[in-house]
Amino acid sequence: RDSIYIVGSSTVFPFSTAVAETFGRTLGYNTPKVESTGTGGGMKLFCAGVGVDHPDITNASRRMKASEFENCQQAGAKEITEVKIGFDGIAIANSKSAKHIDLTLKDIYLALAKDVPDADGKFVPNPNKTWKDVNAALPDAKIEVLGPPPTSGTRDAFVELAMEGGCNSFPELKALKKSDEKKHKAVCQGIREDGAYIEAGENDNLIVQKLVSNKNALGIFGYSFLEQNADKVQGAKIDGIAPTYDTISDGSYPISRSLYFYVKNAHVATIPGIKQFVTEFTSDKAFGPEGYLADKGLIALPDAERASVAKSAKALTPMSKPE
Amino acid sequence: MSKPTLNAPQAPVRRTIDIVNASLKRRHAQERRFRRIGAIAVALGLAFVVLLFADIVGKGYTAFQQTYLQLPIELSAEKIDPAGTREPETLSTADYMAPIRAALRQQFPEVTERRELRQLYSMVSVGAPQFLREQVMENPDLIGTTQEVWVLADDDIDMLVKGQIDRHAPEESRRVNDRMLGWVEHLEEQGRIEKRFNTIFFTQGTSREPELAGIAGALMGSFYTLLLTLILSFPIGVGAALYLEEFAPKNRWTDLIEVNVNNLAAVPSIVFGLLGLAVFIGFFGAPRSTPLVAALVMTLMTLPTIIIASRVALKSVPPSIREAALGVGASPLQTQFHHVLPLALPGMLTGAIIGMARALGETAPLLMIGMIAFIVDIPSGFTDAATVLPVQIFLWADSPERGFVERTSAAIIVLLAFLFLMNLVAVLLRRRFERRW
Amino acid sequence: MNITVDEMEKMTGAMSSAELASERHSRTTVGDFTAADPRMTCRNVDVWYGSKQAINGVSLDIGKNEVVSMIGPSGCGKSTFLRCLNRMNDTIDGCRVTGSIQLDGQEIYDKSLDPVPLRAQVGMVFQKPNPFPKSIYENVAYGPRIHGLTNSKAELDELVESSLEKAGLWKEVKDRLDQPGTGLSGGQQQRLCIARTIAVSPEVILMDEPCSALDPIATAIIEELIDELRANYSIAIVTHSMQQAARVSQRTAYFHLGDLIEVGETNQIFTNPQHRLTEDYITGRFG
Amino acid sequence: MNITVDEMEKMTGAMSSAELASERHSRTTVGDFTAADPRMTCRNVDVWYGSKQAINGVSLDIGKNEVVSMIGPSGCGKSTFLRCLNRMNDTIDGCRVTGSIQLDGQEIYDKSLDPVPLRAQVGMVFQKPNPFPKSIYENVAYGPRIHGLTNSKAELDELVESSLEKAGLWKEVKDRLDQPGTGLSGGQQQRLCIARTIAVSPEVILMDEPCSALDPIATAIIEELIDELRANYSIAIVTHSMQQAARVSQRTAYFHLGDLIEVGETNQIFTNPQHRLTEDYITGRFG
Amino acid sequence: MYAWTLIVVLLMVMALAYHLGRKRAIASAGGVTQINTLHSLPSYYGLYAAIWAGLPALLLMGLWFGFQDQIVTSLVTANLPAEMLDGQSSGRVGLILNDIKNLATGNIVSATVTPEVQAAADQYARLARIANWAMWLAVLAVAVGGMAYAWLRTEPQMRARNRVESIFKFIMITFSSIAILTTLGIVLSVVFESFRFFQMISPLEFFLGTNWSPQIALRADQVGASGAFGAIPLFTGTLMVSLIAMLVAVPIGLMSAIYLAEYAPRNVRSIAKPVIEVLAGIPTVVYGFFAALTVAPLIRDLGALAGLNVASESALAAGLVMGIMIIPFVSSLSDDVINAVPQSMRDGSYALGATQSETIRRVIIPAALPGIVGGILLAVSRAIGETMIVVMAAGLSANLTANPLDSVTTVTVQIVTLLTGDQEFDSAKTLAAFALGLTLFLVTLVLNVIALSIVRKYREQYE
Ligand SMILES: Nc1ncnc2c1ncn2[C@@H]1O[C@H](COP(=O)(O)OP(=O)(O)OP(=O)(O)O)[C@@H](O)[C@H]1O
Ligand SMILES: Nc1ncnc2c1ncn2[C@@H]1O[C@H](COP(=O)(O)OP(=O)(O)OP(=O)(O)O)[C@@H](O)[C@H]1O
Ligand SMILES: [Mg+2]
Ligand SMILES: [Mg+2]
Ligand SMILES: O=P([O-])([O-])[O-]
User: Fold this and answer.
1) Contact state of C134 with E358 under an 8 Å Cβ cutoff
2) Concatenated DSSP letters of E201-265
3) What is the pTM of this model?
4) Which residue among A185, C80, C167, E318 is buried most deeply as judged by most CB within 10 Å?
């Protein structure tokens, strides 16, 4: 094998492929083969072993889990370099021809949670039918949210950030986290299954287009799609913050997550170009705020963090076991 | 002769013809209705094709053109070939982006601020230097001159020029801001912007840049996959059908096989992907993401279709033909190959057409065997990593860039053209063999 | 009763094309082709298969309550002519019919004429038995059903039984009416097709060698049937058995290579043929 | 020559099942079913279609250089029996054959026997003409081709011509050898099938009503052919024409409802039948 | 590249063998005029020789390709200095060898080239070259040997046709068994996982439960859905979507088949048929977009006009579009069989005074029924197995409903979603996909058995 083999997250796929292409075009190496397998699938392939048949790099839209790290260790992939490449914002948007809508995390939680606390704090199946039921300030429209299915990393992130965030706006629920973490998760992260939340497949373009033809619906998808389709859909402000490059980058926009890739150090010496690929990826002209990945919708890390990431990536510093 | 009345039936109370005539109006109405329903059905079928086509072509035809910017580019000898050796090595490693950028700056001297300059540079594609390099390498005499060169525009500019981005939309909901719009309009006034036939689309592999993305890799991938699928599945399918229908003893065991084959047709395609992953890649160690494995999976998937269609076709050949051949001492195999197969061939080809069409359009099982991958290089064999048209379409359809929307449709057009070509061959064959007896 | 090779040579020699050409002048029909009370009248009927002419200007009537038999060497156009009479030739690609064929004074090749009632009126038994791939019962019940000839299941059962009975098949098949008609022996299939045709009581019946696969007993039953049907209907029958023609028909037409050579009273044709070709044919048989 | 309805009633009545049962004791074959110099010997052949028995324990020989004719009412099992002789019944679903059938002492239903050379040796003309949907030429040339009987195109042409000639079809089709065999008239198709069969020179020929669609002249030609073939080969012919049986065959077998009732010298059978059923059948015809 | 030339050479050897075998047969018979003393036609002797020349050689070549690299690699490995391999896992060794191979074939290499590696690469290149030559020699030797064998065995009594035909028959049997093997493979690959699934989730819940929400947490820190595994809504969803699809496809498909085969002029038929067949080949993504963006909103708007409450994802939209997709399965196959019904059947019916439509409905369709049912079965199968359209147009939520205007999901959609995301083979979630697969397999099996017996019952064999 004479080319790098990359697997993993479909969210990172557009960025990884952009680097792969530039890498192939400018550095004279063969263009890496990038497979979109989803974060979990990628981890599984990546941690299956060392050797020509196994991938060199896996992309992830979340950190590697301790269990996955263990798997890697057992399969002989002892040294793994973790590279954080930037942020991905998750936008909640509706059609441009509909009224602009501003939400709080609490609204989101109340609109989409499976069970919500009623007036006396008891959990009842979510009774809210319209946005007005959720919050009197919101329009009297049916709750209809198109979002990714549970298999997608976007969904994981949405649940963790938006739903749990909204959940924690209830003090008693926030307290629950300390006392009974499991229960807290269950009540905060469960998404209703009664049709108000529509699992629309993993194609974000489809969600965008469905929004165009359905004015009532809201959609949940990655920031890059919002940016590309700014003439068709508008992002809702969350807690008063609009999803823009700057707000996501500085962390004020609440629903954003980090993206990573992982390198199998054992392959670096024997598969041509891995080091150069990592260098290319972590160069400012790629993942910097002015870099070509920014054009593709990646939101760059803050300068300082970027520099340190680039440094340890170049050195291929192995990660320690994640907690 | 005996007396005619002896056993004569009671003469019908009414003549048949009266009864017939009485019902004729109703029956003719029925006939007309039936016929009209048939015509409507065909028309509907055709209308669906036309509708889908119009939809796809309407969205995709613009992708066959690509926007270029004309820039006076100074190919200074010092920059490109300082030693003046004209060695290909030097020429190919030279920086061609610089002269393009210089030309842009020269067009818009007022732009100096760094951020603005970046925007200005972003008007040409990152792939533009590559084409300039090719031109120079082909004709090294250009070095040292200033040439009016058509360089590839960035996808945003392309979208703008093609009207996919609304120039009158408010700036914040437009990917091209007012400043860039001004530059574009300036260039347009000078006649320096032109849409040309998009050769890149047909000659290049995929890319993350819409303007550089081509279908050639996926097309070749599909070609290899389908070629191998056809080579494998048609003979195997026909052979199996022949055996099951004509040779195998008719017993529970063959009934089981028949049910089994029918049932395989209902197995979701992704399960074939699972099987391929486990057997071909896992067990036999065939290389992942290759037309070879894809073709093997597709073969398993299309076999039931071909077997069923072929059996149906064999069944409809009248037994007297077989008897006639056997009667002059032809062996069963000769009977089949000389007489039955030619008569059944149209039906078998139908099976092949439908099976191949499905194999050409299928994505799900390929997800399992690693074909949903970013592969730039155009495959040149069955064991090169490749992707195929529907997967390419699937990937492009999921890309955020606006430029991929039309390219997705264009790729579908190419796929359909491929399909038509395939059908055409089969249809010509089918027509040769079709007859009534 | 045997004929020698020499005799045969002579016979076939008589038909060699050179000689035929010289006889061309005499190939206009001999005898009176009209019937006193015609149901069907054909005038100058030509039939082409593609560019090949299979029938040359044949004129012939089929009278009320009469049986007309058509005889002639194999390939002379008997079936072709018969198929013209209920427009069955419509279904053959490239088959063209010109001239006038009338049923009760109505031109049947008229554009406006509906072949459906025509064929209900002019029934046909084909040369090759072609039972439907259905049960025996359904084969016979098919016609009455589509025309709505019966009003109840019982009536239909009765009609099926009587039709099979008339065709001499009832005894053989009454226990297996629900079995496929295609699983019958050749002669049984032929009788099934006859039963199927008479079940709709057509007024003109065209029979193309209805007894070719039948043994003498079954043949006798069919001939009896024909005789009986004649009381009400008109029948045209193609046969290779001159005895049969003599037994069942009132008039006989002799065809030769697409021409209607001679037509007349059956007795007269067989005892005193006018045309040399007719005579050759008949004596070839009887000689 | 006509039979009355009454007589017919009697005849068919004679076959009614009750009476048949009482006659069962007499249904063992009358006459000598062996041949002096047999090519094919059948012993106790039973044939079932599914659960229905179509042939009951028939024993019959076909001798060298002889023509055996098989007669009997429609549906009595003649075709079924004939088809056993070259294992054509193998192609019918649910058809079972037991007993012994030998060709030159070799059991043809032996598991190890290859039916292909058997069928090349024992040719068959089917009851319903079944030309291939190919050209006339190809229809005849097919057999010689697969058996490699000729060495050159010229030889093959010659063989095709002579086969068609012998079947009396050459004159009619020589100008259109390249046209489909399915576009011929019924009788022409039948002769084409005969030509196709004799083109491979089988040593035993089974003919199922080969002349049923033929006019007397064509029939004479085929009978002549049969006579000629007899010099070298053995022939079994099914026919409904007793005259034909009398003309062409040396021995005759009379079948009735699956039983071989009587077999013997043709002369003797037709002049002095031993069994009442045979007599009924023959006199029914001649009476 | 070399493999192709070798195959071409092999084909030429086979052609030669054919020619020689044929000639030899003729000669052994004593010349062209004597070939009727041969058991079979000379061309069968030729074929026999060609098979002997080609088949073993091809087999050998296949084996060689399978093992050459392994053997050469192990030779090279054996020669590598021990310290390079000490304590290395096999994967690691593979990587080192990969580097050596890259060097040997002139590809880019990863790191600095040590002398040992260089030496190994040289050795690899040399061995590969030798092996390549050896393969040529061996394959051609076997080919010629096979040819010689056939040549020696050629004699007039040899039953060449039977031998060739047995080989063909054997090949055909092999082909037929592929279907069985595939089934076996599928069953084997789902049955164990299903078994484990049913150990976790009671079959009772699975088969009778009406609540489907399988996305339970895979990881400790994840929160999934409620984790209900009642498969009934999936099967009803599958049923509904397939039913709607069949309601579209069968009438349109069958009627257009009838029209094209019986009414339309020949040239209309020859154009319309392949054009309609294109419907089967349009990628499902396209249909998915069409269903989700054109049909579904249309239905919703129409429903709104009629005062109905229509979900924006509806079974109806998915079913309708799926129906369009499978039209050709019904129409083309039916068209072929209808066309194959002998003309004499039509003649028989017309002669009784039946109209064309009566003939079609009462004679031709019944006669063509086995084929039509075959086509319909294929179409049903395709409908059951389709995923993309449903994912895009009908959503993923498992509603137990009989209302086609509601959103539903299907078995295959769930299988795909469960298998393409994060998987964990000891979680009921992933295993559920296998249980679904197995159940679907069995259900369709039963349906097929029923269909087969129905077809048997109504089968009408012409002639
Ligand atoms: N394929 C079949 N399946 C079931 N029964 C059959 C089949 N073929 C023939 N039979 C039955 O077997 C019996 C003998 O048929 P066979 O064809 O041998 O008669 P046959 O003597 O040739 O009559 P014919 O003179 O009418 O041709 C008949 O009762 C017939 O109905
Ligand atoms: N479908 C056809 N296409 C072309 N030629 C045909 C077709 N049918 C018949 N012919 C030719 O037309 C001529 C007359 O055929 P027809 O079937 O009318 O003869 P026939 O008198 O019925 O003969 P037979 O007694 O053998 O049935 C023959 O030469 C025949 O070859
Ligand atoms: Mg005729
Ligand atoms: Mg018979
Ligand atoms: O592919 P994911 O980023 O959704 O895991």
Assistant:
1) no
2) S-HHHHHH---EE----SSTT------EE--HHHHHHHHHHHHHHHHHHHHHHHHHHHIIIIIS-
3) 0.89
4) E318
